[in-house]
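Quarterly update from the structural biology core.
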Amino acid sequence: MGEVYRARDPRIRRDVAIKVLHPLHASPEHVVRLTQEARAAGALNHPNILAVFDVGVQDGRPYIVSELLEGESLRHRLNRGALPARKAVEYAIPIAYGLAAAHDKRIYHRDVKPENVFITMDGRVKILDFGLAKMTPDEERGSNTSAPTAPLSQPGIARGTPGYMSPEQVLGDPIDHRTDMFAFGAVLYEMLTGLRVFRGASPVEIMNAILKDDAAEQLEKYAAPIPGLAQVVRRCLEKNPEQRFQSARDLAFHLKQLLGVATGWTVAADDEPRRWLSVWGALAALLGAAAAAAAIVAWRAAHPPPRTTFQQMTFKHGRIASARFAPNGQSIVYSEAHAGQPLEAWYKVPGSAESRTLGYSGADVLGISRSGEVLLSLRNRYAGGERFSGTLARAPLAGGGAPREIVEEVEGADWDEDGTRIAVVHSRGVGTPTSLEYPIGQTIYKTGGSIRSPRISPDGQKVAFLEDAAGLGFEGSVEVVDLTGSRKTLTKVWRDADGLSWSPAGDKIWFTAGDGESHRLLREVSLSGGQRVVAEAPGTLTVRDAAGDGRVLVTQDDERLALFCAPPGQTSEVNLSWFDLSGLADLSPDGRMILSADRGGVYIRKTDGSPAIRLGLPDGYADALSPDLKWALGTTRQTDQLVLMPIGAGELRPLPQYGIKSYAGARWFPDSERILVSGRERDRGLRSYVIDLKGGAPRPVTRENTWALSVSPDGSMLAAISPEEGISLWPIDGGAPRRVPGSQPHDRPVAWSEDGRRLWLFRRNEVPAKIERLEIATGRRELWKMLTPAEGGVYSITDFSITASGSAYCYSYRRRLSDLYLVEGLR
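Predicted structure, tokenized:
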């Protein structure tokens, strides 16, 4: 398409490269590509990205002026064969950092390949050619050039290089930074093996391989010198963007860990080369002042940047729910639960080996006042999702006194700087309204979702918090509301969000969130919406508190959703988790097969421990197995649509939505021809419907705010629940419901006995959890078993299934193991 010349810039006495298009190739689209390359690269200033100095047209020939590189492209190097594993990773790390810098500017390269990676003679790595880069509308508006970009950004058009395109590029679907993660994986694979990961006789065959084939097994052989490297490559090459690395910096961190360059934790800003040195160096060259350059070097030597340190504060095997700095600014108060024990409040002085209990068992620390009182949440009960509700109380920080209870049904609270006003979050749990009061008794915001981590600003005029519109408390956007009730949304909805605090300076908000499950980074957002990453670590982070002197409390959390079963004929439980997010959906009538959702989609697995089989829905939920074991029922996450998945041969079968949204579970009738679903129509409350798979619209069978969980053996009755009420039985063919005697609020009727005379009961708000049998006619309750997970850090047994005879059962639980760190030097 063109030629590249070495040239001399006489003004600042440096050699540059000039790329000039041939006249035959100076079409409007090629001009757009050249202009886009200049705009994208010009918006970046990073040592691993080619610097662009100028762009223009001379005598009808477009040109671009960039820094001059001497060396060879990665393609030329690979033409001589594969790289040693260590050298491949050494090249991959700066590529990842270069992509991270582009992604920070919301610029996506879209054409990462060996031809666009350059290795200089002194070993530096540069990313080239942003001609296909996608710039978000914000970046495009920030550019002063008026060149069109539409031809390169139209949805539905596949652009890129076959062999390095992501599945979403091949399909012409919308793309984001994770497309570059896929191409990066293809390049790293090729560096290690010398072979292209996706091959074919034509571009069509190559793109078909991208959609269907997995990375070749020989990857393990070539990546073997660095344990864990093959897994990193495979994660980059996941077909589903949600399963890839969600951050290029996170990817670079993992690669550095594998090389042994980094030990422990890392701070994003510290891992990249110092860009300001190159800026000052260029200025010094421009001014011709060698003395200025020397002065900069001397200044940096005399004023090194503060080093970030992480001091581990807790060492026991448990779950930390909260942590705050004490009024003296040195000591720390936190709540932690150890195996089989409730939360307890603890006091720790940094530097001391031991923590001491404050004497408040079953208490979560929510806030501390300057006067030496602590806000506690007592008798926490599980409120659904990631939510817990308790009774707010205030108690002496020194311990020894009895807590004074203030308000019930509180999910969160905070004390203002003066210790005179308290902000509280009121709710009865999932499906009920949630209100934020500040001070207590004055509602300043209300939502149908959840409000978590309320924190009062240092000036006492605003409250920041995480809101999840779905109400489960997993996702969240950062919100801020003032005393008049005026609310402002500061961030997008993060798929995984937990933990929030005002920054040490008090003018911004620090929060921990990520786009992938169980990988939260420490982030910052200003009140105008500007964002940046502050720190990242292996696993996931939760910010707990920040002090005015810059010290921060964070926990590093190992989070897991585990699945255990007692198969037929066995009394001991076996771990049937597949990945780390194994959520139980259903157990077959004979107890020999389970349906679950995990990373990668919906799976079935035999309870004998056979490997799991993926059915589909890479980003969906699992619901139920048909009694004849021909179908599994699931729900898509994005479109909230029910889908039938064949257990044997066949195609996925989406069901009409019928105006129902926000599905909250589904079950099959014994005939395997009808399903029971719970959801909402428009703005109506949650209720249950019967759907006949032979056709016809869903038929409501319960009133609003009442939903059924199980079907009687003969298919004639439903066992349903509603907030704050016990169990009621609803006839399928109409008629008045009747309440089951002996049932209590929060009972979940998960199954019927074989004769239809008893209900199997499970309560989500207990760990250990009771499994009981309830006689429908008499109301007599009988304890059958206590579910007591042996693993520490378990805080919620989320789901339970049992066969009608009780011959087999399964359950899932959430657990979090935490280490508390005192961090200094973050900025």
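The chain has 13 helices and 55 strands.
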